[in-house]
């Protein structure tokens, strides 16, 4: 049995224990639980089209938070990017899509969706915009209407990842080939 302590003498740990005891038998509704504690939504396999892998992703991302990167075409300033993406966010809000927007560069923004099941509909809207260069969703890059001709390769993988991998391979190969002290150290 715990010692009886005056409430005025409680520290943070005592208050945390008291809160845990209080909430132990408390019934919390499923929608109020944090996302990582909610049970996953059941997947209806009859709605999955085997020819479209996006349909599987739509169903598995339903009800989960999802982020997509959007690049604004041209060479906009951060303020221009803010204005353009704000217009897109307003349009999506008017169409009843809950989207939060974060500017991450002079021409890049992150659109965060509370329900990832709508991500591909939002992606279709964004790539149809004049100033949208591309949308990155689940590792796939979808070129937008504002993309240059060289960028309009459908569903290309991120070139940054490929470049980084090639650079890492070159570094490891050069280290293997030249595994001796440099000339400068030999002189010492």
TrEMBL record:
This is LRP chaperone MESD. It is found in: Endoplasmic reticulum. Signal peptide: none annotated. One of its GO terms (biological process) is Wnt signaling pathway. Belongs to the MESD family. Keywords: Chaperone, Endoplasmic reticulum, Signal, Wnt signaling pathway. Pfam families: Mesd. Residues 148-188 have a biased composition (Basic and acidic residues). GO terms for cellular component: endoplasmic reticulum. Residues 23-32 have a biased composition (Acidic residues). One of its GO terms (molecular function) is low-density lipoprotein particle receptor binding. Residues 23-47, 140-188 are annotated as: Disordered.
